[in-house]
Give the backbone structure.
Amino acid sequence: MRKGSIAFSLFWLSAGWLIVALAGTAFLLTDLYSRTLDTDLTNQLRFDVETLTSATLDSTDPNFADVALPDPRFSRVSTGWYWAIRNEFGDVIATSRSAVGLLMPTLSGNFGVDNYRSDALVDEAGNHIRAIERSTSSNGRPLRITVTGNLDDGLERIGAFRGQTLIVLGAVGIALAIMSAIVARLAMRPIGRLGRAIEAVREGEAEQIAGTYPREIAPLADEVNELLRSNTQIIERARNAVGNLAHGLKTPIAVLRNEAGAAPDSPLSSVVTSETAKMQQLVATYLDRARIAARTAIVGKRADATMVMLRLVRVMQKLNQNVTIAFKRPDASIPWFRGDESDLEEMAGNLLDNACKWSHGSIAVTMASERTPAAQFLVIRIEDDGPGLTEDEASKVLRRGVRLDEKTPGSGLGLDIVKELVDVYGGSLHLKRSVLGGLLAELRLPAAKVGGLVRN
Amino acid sequence: MRILVVEDDTNLNRQIKDALTEGGYAVDVAFDGEEGHFLGDTEPYDAVVLDIGLPQMDGLSVLEEWRRAEKSMPVLLLTARDRWSDKVQGIDAGADDYLAKPFHMEELLARLRALVRRAAGHASNEITAGPVRLDVKAGRVTVDGQAIKLTSHELRLLSYLMHHKGKVVSRTELTEHLYDQDFDRDSNTIEVFVGRLRKKLPEELIHTVRGLGYQILED
């Protein structure tokens, strides 16, 4: 499933282009700069040629011994800065002092329409030089005036320029790469957010994907929500179907069992009795499963525990008129239960039912909130004045399916359901001795973060 | 004691009817919500066994209608759904007790007995009047500890009078509560049974209140 990273590809794609573009820019800039330097040099040399040309016109000496250029570089030997005046046959008539003793390089190529020609050469001293030559005439004498300038200075400057350009562009490149990395991450951020939202749904912290997303991935979030919705519907329908089937089977099972019970001695009825017991077990098992399946989708819910307890106490009081249930209604600051309302009813209801079954007439229900550094808990205590349980018995009933007294009505599943639900919610159930003389069942459940003050 | 059984499963309905008849009750049956509602609305019953899942009109609606019309007979709800939220809903609709399917017939009888007893204001399964002691659960009558044999009709009559001890019960009331709908009601039969009971029990137990009916006096 995992195939590279979009952010990484984006980054390398943009970084690759950056490298190519920056290298091209560096090359172009250096080229432009060297051309500019060359043009400057050529212009200067042309100016010198023209200066020499006018000097020959003014000269009185046939060998132009009085001709000179003011630039001191033409006076120092082997600098690459030379000038020479030749006749039409190429014989040197006069040279700069810098060229004394050197063989003046000769240019090749044709003169242009302006009677100039230009060439890049290497002199005897090894200098790279730019040479400009003009074909002219002075007072009727055809002459060729050559001026050269050192290119090495320029080359050095070009090198320095190239170095600086590379440093600047490198810095720009790094800055752009960092930016493109940031952009890539920024662009990917909503995707990360979406991923976390989906994870929250899977973890049961949310029912669907919340928040707004950019146009590019909003359809994805919508589709996921749609998928969740249809998934929930499918589960809901399947669960309902299982529930309906199981509930629907209960009546025929009851009929068969009653019919068989009416004739306990016949072999048929003993078969029917044992088979209906199995059927009933299956029904109970699958109803339990359907409930558990339903439970996976309920995290994120909360319930007003006080209201639930009020309701249960009212119902149990009506069903058991021979006992008095004292319920001290807690104040509004009591936290809500973090979970499904009907699950809380199931836990507290079964405990209350047990208390009613065993009580001699008096039951007390209290609620409290308990705070540990890690979490807040809601504690529901249900106590009766019945026979109670010894420690051994208490630990025994907390094991699955154990009933201490088969005569008291009930399937014995009551506590199992309570225990299972308590586990699902990460709470705890303790059975202790009550001050009333009977059993104290202490139900400790996670409290909702908000809710206590919401009630009107 | 006359009981109405509203249950759409014909077999279960028959079984409950048989068990109740055997337990000494007069039983009327209905197989759907509307019929059940009509019977409960028009006939005087001492208790009702009401299924929740019924055709035409569901059990909770039937019950709510009755309570709205201030029918106060005890109602035992029968249901396949045994979650506490269902129980709470049933009790809030006005039910007095609740039994989840599949159930043991003995439990149904026990709960029904308790409901009838409670409605009449008796705390235990034994009702006494002078030397006469009626064990509602076992359907046994003793006088000074001696067991007395009664026919089912005699037992029904005595049981009703004992339950309503101290109250004058008219012949019509007795007919209505002792026989099911299909019984050929002839108020003379009541007199016949009262006469037989007086022979088997201390004669002064059942008083005749002229023009009004019969009465077993409070101790």
